[in-house]
Amino acid sequence: MKLSKNEPGTITGRGNTEQMAKEAREYSESIVETVREPLVVLDADLRIISANKSFYRNFKVSPKETLGRLIYDLGNRQWNIPALRKLLEKILPNNTSFENYEVEHVFPHIGRRIMLLNARRIPPPPAKSRIMLLAIEDITERERLKKELLLEEEEKFKSVFDNAADGILLADTKSKKFIMGNNAICHMLGYSREEIKTLGVMDIHPKKDIPYVIDQFGRQLKGEFQLSQDLPLKRKDGSVFYADVNATTIDINKKTYLMGFFHDTTERRKAENKLKKSKEVLQTKADELENFIRLTVGRELKMVELKKAIKDMEND
Predict the structure, then answer these.
(1) pLDDT tens digits for range 103-148
(2) CA distance 268 to 72
(3) Over 60: is that where the pLDDT of 22 sits?
(4) 31, 45, 55, 235 — which has fewest CB within 10 A?
(5) Residues 89 and 171 in one domain
(6) Residues 42, 131: one domain?
């Protein structure tokens, strides 16, 4: 059988295959270079086939010390990260890709970094021969700014929280334990801020009222209503006062809490009681006056009738 010059078994055929592989590699490398984020191409053994300039620049490594090496051995094994091993060896082999996997690591030359990893197998499973594209987005600065903004917001929240005229308590929705309380609620209840953190809903109400209070807590948590009026509260010294409690849910660090605003109604209740007593006194006076008028009018009518009777007798 005579081979054609361009068939794979011939020198020319092998040359064409090598040329095609070289062109394909150069084409893939040109695509890799266009990606803004650091990107590496790994073979099936997790050795680095290619990496873009962004990868070299961001992680302070050179092509000479990178290409052909296991990704875990790169540099001084700075990429030997447990989370990355788990992704590449356990998750990716059974999946086509993974996205936005957050990894935090301290690198020798560039310090602590927070990265989002995105990877894809080419071709996808179940093909055995494959390469992996691993894109690395450094979100360290973004996370730093986010934390600064959160801290700034937290400081604003604390300022409003601490200086509010009404008492405020933040309660865990499951355990009903208090996470924090402001200065006003500490003054109302007679506890320090540290003591507040050791208490729960059941500790600040008279024992006989706890079933009602728990019912109100649950219904406020469900959003059935916000305002619970004149709830009895028990101070540290055992004395009782009343407050309107306006409650709403709030999410902090992906966890939901019930935040209650306590408005002491003692003065209002005193005023209402005083007004009630005043009304009772006025009603009593009014009743007495009515009786007096009735008696007076009755006497006057009797006098008129008596005078009339006397006059009639005189005429006779």
Answers:
(1) 887 776 677 888 888 888 776 555 555 788 888 888 888 888 777 7
(2) 71
(3) no
(4) 45
(5) no
(6) yes
